Amino acid sequence: MEAEVSREAVHALPKAELHVHLETSLRLRRLAEELHAPSLTEPYLVSDPKRHFGYDRLRRLRYLGRAGKVPDSLYTHRNVARITYELLREAAEDHVRYVEVRVGGRRGFALLGIRGMLEAMAEGRARAEEEFGIRCGFLVTLVRERGPEHALEVAEIAASCAECGVVGLDLAGDEENFPPALFARACEVAREAGLGITVHAGEFSGPASVWTAIYQLGATRIGHGFRAVEDPELVAYLRDHRITLEICPTSNVRLGLVQNWKDHPVRALFDAGVRVTLNSDDPLLLRTNLTSEMYLAARELGFTLDELRTMVRYAAEGAFDPRAATEALAVAAG
Ligand SMILES: [Zn+2]
C-alpha cells in the first residue's frame, strides 16, 4: 500500500505549469485594492454558481469579479510588469520552476497595445527570473468571439514578439458558436513563426472540438480536453501522437462541467497513457494553485507522488520552450 501523499510533499515537488491566465483585470484589481482602496469588500466576489453553467458561468464569474472596479488608468506598463512579477513570485513560492502565462485581455491590449502589454510583462518576467530562478514563456490568447480578422492581427503581432518571450498561441472563448476553422489562418501564421499552438477544446464542447483543433489548427496541446474521454478513438490518437492535455480540475468543477473531483476523467486519461498535466487555469478567480491541484489529485483520485512527477515531466516535454522547462527542473532537482 502506497503511503499517503502529503500536501507538504506536493508543495516541495519542483513543478511545471502550462495553463495559467494572467487575468489582468483581477490581478490589477487586487493591486488597486492593496495600493489605493483596501476597503473594497470581498475582492473575489463571484456569481451564484447555481444560476449559470459552463462558459456562461465563466463569463459571469469573471465579470462580477471585476466589474467597474478597475479603471483604465491602472493599465500602465509599470502595473502590468508588477502583476506579472507577482504571478511569477507566487508560482515560485509554490515551487513551480517553469510556467507558461497566457494573456489576451481586451482592455489591456486596447489600452497598452498588444506589443506594449507583452513588453511590460517581459519586464516583470526578467525581474522574477533573476530573483527566483523561475523560467517563463508567454502565450497570446485569441478570443474566439472577437472574430477571425482580429485573431489574425493578434497572431501577426505575437509572431513578431519572440524577443518579448512569446512561445505560443492559445485559442479560447466560445467553442460552440465560433468553430476552429475560422482561426486556421491565424494559427498558420503563428506556426510559421515557430510558435506552439494550444487550443481550449473538449471543455464546453465534446470530442469533436478536440479533433478539429488538432486537424484544422495543428494544435499539439489542448487546453482542458478532458471530454476526449468520451471518444476511445480520440484517446488512442492523443496517446499515440503525444498530444499534451492541460487539465485544470478545479476550474472544471467550479464551472459545473464535472460534478466533483472524484468524477474527473483525468485519472482515466492518465491510465490510458495520455500525456495529461495539471494546471491552475485562473488561480485568483478559482482560489487555487498548482500544489492544490496536485494534492487534490492525489487525495481524491489516488495519484502517487511518482505519478505526479510523471505529469510534471509531461508538462516539461509538452512545453513550448521544452529546453527552458527541462533546465529549470534539472536545476531544482540538482
Ligand atoms: Zn483557460
Strand order of the largest sheet: 1-2-3-4-5-6-7-8
Order of helices and strands: HEHHHEHHEHEHEHEHEHHEHHHH
Bound molecules: zinc ion
What is the approximate shape? globular
Point out poorly predicted stretches: 38-47
CATH architecture: Alpha-Beta Barrel
> CATH-wise, what's the superfamily?
Metal-dependent hydrolases
Please indicate the percent range of residues in DSSP E strands (runs of 2 or more). 5-15%
Count of β-strands: 8
Largest sheet report = 8 strands, parallel
The level-1 CATH class: Alpha Beta
Give the helix level as a range of percent.
40-55%
Helix tally? 16
> Termini, distance in Å?
29 Å
What would the CATH topology be?
Answer: TIM Barrel
Could you report the average pLDDT, rounded to the nearest whole number?
A: 90
Question: How large, in whole angstroms, is the Cα Rg?
Answer: 19 Å
What does this structure look like?
- The chain is α/β, with parallel strands linked by helices.
- It has one domain: TIM Barrel.
- Helices cover 51% and strands 15% of the residues.
- It contains 16 helices and eight strands.
- β5, α9 (207-217) and β6 (221-224) form a beta-alpha-beta unit.
- It is globular, with a radius of gyration of 19 Å.
- The chain starts with 6 loop residues before the first helix and ends with a helix.
- The relative contact order is 0.15.
- The model is unreliable at 38-47 (pLDDT under 50).
